[in-house]
Each structure stands twice: as structure tokens, then as C-alpha cells.
Amino acid sequence: MPVPRQRLVVPALCVSVLxxxxxxxxxxxxxxxxxxxxxxxxxxxxxxxxxxxxxxxxEEFQADVEAARVIAEAYWSEKFDxxxxxxxxxxxxxxxxxxxQVACGGQGLGLNNAAYCSAGDFIAxxxxxAFGAFRQIGDAFIFYLLGHEYAxxxxxxxxxxxxxxxxxxxxxDCMAGAYLGDMEKAGRLRLAAGxxxxxxxxxxxxGDDPGQPWFAEGAHGTAKQRTRAFSNGYSQSLELCNxx
Length: 244
What we know:
About 40% of the residues lie in helices and about 5% in strands. The chain is mainly alpha-helical. The termini are far apart.
């Protein structure tokens, strides 16, 4: 019987509470109002399978996803306020379980993926894949996953568009590190024993394959580059993320 892992603690919030991280290019809204996500009619209520051994349950997973969303909103709201900017939270957080169940800018999202869609201003994720990562890597990685995708929403709000995909992605890793590190320093969340190891394992897993050209469309960076970007944000906040 597996030994239950210690869980990341969120002391200041009243929330009822990857194997590989995918990130698709987010289509832009063509004009007018942002497009809303387009789930199929049977999307509501479908959930990943419950863990058979009673640990790392769907309920724990959903609570961590919600906690990560709330913390990200609080963090970026405070940063925008400090910079004299108006903050608008991401409109929706949408789980899906089938390929093409949620569309972004007319393009169906694939499995084993999480993405921010600027066309509808939402974050969508394959619930079964994310739940598998939650069980295999740990709950701290879910906070990183949501932090990374939320960072893409912040880039959109600040109208940051780098020349190469890898620059955009490494900046998002830095921002995810800053949100986790800063909120831990502020006492808004507490990393339990083993959480940093979980994050290191997750970041090691999400690096590009050897030989991937850094300038290629969709490049995210090597495991070393992604770990360094996250660590820069975690230890030095947004100073090295080149945002404000």
C-alpha cells in the first residue's frame, strides 16, 4: 500500500480544499468580443477516475487546482495594483477529457495538454492527464502547471510577444517560479517536505527533446533552461523575468 505524500499547505485561503507539460500556441481572437470555449454537450460532469487506493483522490486534485487558481489571481492582482494597472482574472478554467472537446479559436485542443487560450481568455487542461501527473509527480506540480499557464494570460494582458516561442515559454516558467516563491515567502502557501523535489522532477520531465532547435516554433527550452528560469523566479521574484 503506498504511503500518502505530504501535501502542499495553503494556510491563508479558505478553499475547500506531468509526466510532460504540453502548451499549444494560443490563437488570437480575430476581432470583436473574445470567443468563448466550445465544449461538447456531454462535457459537464465528466471527471478522471477515482484513485483506487484512496490516496490522491479526485477531490484532492480538484481542490489543488482551485487553490492554485485562487492564489495565482491574488498574486497577479497585487502585482498589477502595485504597478498601477487594472487586473482582470482569467475568465474560466476548463477541464476536458476528450480530444477536441474544448476548442480555442476554432481549433480543438488535444489530449495530454494544458493551454491558455487568448481567443476566449481561458485555461483548459486534459483532466485525466493532469490527474495522472498529480498522482505521479505530486500536488506541487499542479501549482506550477496552473502558474505557467496563468503566466501566459499575464503576458497577453501586458501585450508581451517575444520573437521566439522559447523566450515566451521560459519567461512563463520564471513567472511561475515567482508566484510560488513570493506567495511562500508571504506565508500565503507553504511547501511541505518533498515539494521542491516534486517540482524539480516535473521540470526535468518537461524539457524539450535533445536536438530540438531553440528557434523552432513550439520550443519550450531544455530541462536545464526551464529549471533555471523557474529557479530565477522562485529565488528572485519577477526581477529576472523582465515584466514590469
